[in-house]
């Protein structure tokens, strides 16, 4: 049984990122409908939840702590906003903004990789700024408030902050004239990357943890007692290596609820609507996350 668990620990991350992510890329290259991609994403979510129970990082984090319904609402709103950012594509195409700049002659896979790197950089910059600018932190604090990490936490974002991050990542792509068949898959790839970052599965990624922003790296970002201003990348750790915010310590990632959450804000609201109101209600200095 231990051999099976070790094997699952090494297989879970590549199956999530390259298996389900690769399936979405193939679907996009074949002109598949959004419904097909949504089905692949749902399958990825189910796979993630199964692995969280077979090889949990922290078994208690699999229990519903009265937050499951709230997290589902956050996920639905976040996915909707991700899709909404692509509604501008026809307008940009009609205005010929970015026309001729995007390398449409490249193979589809290379175009996707380029788009992912640009999206990753833009969103990492916005994420980093959210830990530096007080007004942004108020909205980003929602994401740092949970006391457990599991698959849905990645989509637990205030709509204002989600819009800021999406704009930072998508606007450069729109200005470059990214084609619709490449852009259409990005929200689904981003959702899978968030699953990889926040999964409660005890994954093992070896040297790949230094290149890809998976859960082994991202758990440090949610550490309450210490410096959470690290590991901002969504897909990769390239931005963090570039600006010096990459951090990894073997055996030091948080394993208990006491190590997560917002320092000095024990009373942070837990319900969905209260969390939406919270950034407008308080005017506090940024706590150490």
Short description:
With 289 residues, the chain is mostly helical. The chain has helices spanning 2-29, 34-54, 68-84, 89-94, 108-130, 134-144, 159-176, 180-183, 186-198, 215-218, 238-243, 272-281. The chain has one domain (67-198, 205-281).
Residue share in β-strands:
under 5%
Task: Specify the helix fraction band.
Answer: 55-70%
User: Spans of 5+ residues with little confidence (pLDDT < 50)?
Assistant: none
Structural class designation: mainly alpha
Number of strands: 0
Order of helices and strands: HHHHHHHHHHHH
How would you characterize the largest beta sheet? none
The domain count comes to 1
Contiguous helical run count: 12
Q: Quick check: average pLDDT? A: 88
The first-to-last residue Cα distance is: 37 Å
What Rg, in angstroms, do the CA atoms define? 18 Å
General form: globular
